[in-house]
Write a structure and sequence with these properties.
Elements: E1 3-6, H1 8-13, E2 29-30, E3 34-39, H2 44-65, E4 75-80, H3 83-90, E5 101-106, E6 112-117, H4 121-140, H5 147-158, H6 175-180, H7 184-196, H8 203-216, H9 232-241, E7 255-256, E8 259-260
Length: 277
């Protein structure tokens, strides 16, 4: 969750640092647009699965953005199943311990790689979409796109990857639902902070705001976010009046080859998720 910029000089300086992910290592699976490697314990089957998910999500994102970035460069995706190894990688960019993924871009270069902690299908596939949105914004939108728009678009489009109408216990992850629990004054403060700060803690506010834009702004496609400026009063009215069910509909038609790429419903409902604090 987040697109981080590093200069090549920094990369050289960190070359001997064990925390720097080796994004150029031999992948476990290669698709048309991705080079997927599982870190620590090599798992080609998981790499192929993540690659197939990524291709399906990329097709859906191309439709939402109204543009296909092309195939000249495959995005490396590093998949972490070992929490300790992921923590080591995350320490390179000083991210909060709860952040489940990140994308690194190199200043002055068209080179990026994404890191995703793979802990369970529903959560991790949502993180994968979030990082792929950052790839799309980096390749199709202006370089000076405000951080809150970049993070908000990723949060808004990543929500709803799993079937939330089936698993109500996952609804607390929705950015709009999380923000709806705040008083108007609190929400105004969070929106202001989201527009000024890169802190991940404000991603929910940015995501809810962008979801409002996607639903009410009359955008031709996701690239319309560049010129869009939100009306906070209208946003607050929308978040108070929109039926709760609307917030959990999937924005991504995540299908490839006729198959639904959303995780299959579990045979038994999962345990209730904790209430966010």
């Amino acid at each position: 969750m987040g697109r981080w910029l590093l200069s090549l000089a920094v990369v050289v300086a960190l070359g001997g640092c064990s925390c720097l992910p080796d994004w150029k290592a031999e992948p476990d699976a290669v698709t048309a647009h991705f080079r997927v490697r599982t870190v620590t314990s090599r798992d080609p089957a998981l790499a192929r699965h993540v690659g197939a998910l990524a291709e399906g999500y990329r097709t859906a994102l191309a439709g939402l953005f109204g543009v296909n970035p092309g195939t000249e460069r495959a995005l490396p995706i590093l998949v972490y199943t070992d929490p300790a190894a992921y923590t080591d990688a995350r320490s390179c960019v000083d991210l909060d311990e709860h952040v489940p993924g990140f994308t690194i871009s190199f200043v002055g270069e068209e080179e990026r790689f994404a890191c995703v902690r793979w802990i369970e299908e529903g959560w991790s596939s949502r993180t994968l979409v979030h990082e792929l949105v950052h790839e799309f914004t980096a390749r199709t939108l202006p370089k000076d796109l405000p951080t809150w728009k970049d993070e908000g678009l990723a949060a808004a489009l990543a929500h709803g990857v799993d079937d939330l109408t089936t698993h109500d216990t996952h609804l607390w992850r929705c950015p709009v639902l999380a923000c709806s629990r705040l008083a108007d004054d609190e929400l105004r403060v969070m929106i202001g902070e989201a527009m000024r700060s890169r802190a991940v803690v404000y991603t929910n506010a940015a995501g809810a705001l962008v979801r409002f834009g996607l639903e009410t702004g009359g955008w031709a496609d996701a690239r319309s976010i560049v010129a869009w400026e939100p009306d906070v009063d209208a946003f607050l009215e929308w978040i108070r009046s929109t039926p709760r069910e609307r917030w959990h509909t999937r924005l991504l038609p995540v299908r490839a080859g006729g198959g639904d790429l959303s995780p299959a419903p579990a045979s038994t409902p999962p345990a209730p998720a904790p209430t966010p604090r």
